[in-house]
Input
Amino acid sequence: MIKAFIIFCFLIFQLFGFLTFANAETNTLRYALCKSNVAQTRVVGHDNNFSVKINLSRSSVEEFKNITAKNVGKRLSIVIDDSIITSAIIESEIDSGVIASSQMTETDAKNLQQRILNALEKPCGLVIQQ
Output
C-alpha cells in the first residue's frame, strides 16, 4: 500500500515537474525546478550585482501564476536538489514566468546557473518537507 502511494506520488510529480506544499509552521511554499518546468537560465547584471533569471517553460507559466495568485503574502522558496536557491514573500501574482535569484557576484551567479543546469539533467524528484 505504501509502495503504491510512493509510486503514485512519483508519477504525479513526473507529470507536473514540480511539487508545491505549504509548511504550516513557516507558511512557506516550495517550488522545485526540473527539466519539465525550466525553459532557460541566464546570468544578468553588472558591477557585482548579478542574478540568475530563470524562464519557466510555457506549460509551467500558468501553473506558477495560479500558485502565486493564490498565495500572496506567503513565502515562496525556489528549490533545486533539495536546496533553496532563492526565497521571497509573494507580493502579487507572477504572470511573467520569470524567476530571479538574489543579487550576488558574477562568479556566484555563474556557479548557481551551472547548479541549475546540472539539476535539470537529472530526473525530477520529490521535494521533501524539512
Remarks:
- The helical segments are 2-16, 58-70, 106-120.
- The beta strands are 22-23, 28-32, 38-46, 49-56, 75-80, 83-89, 98-100.
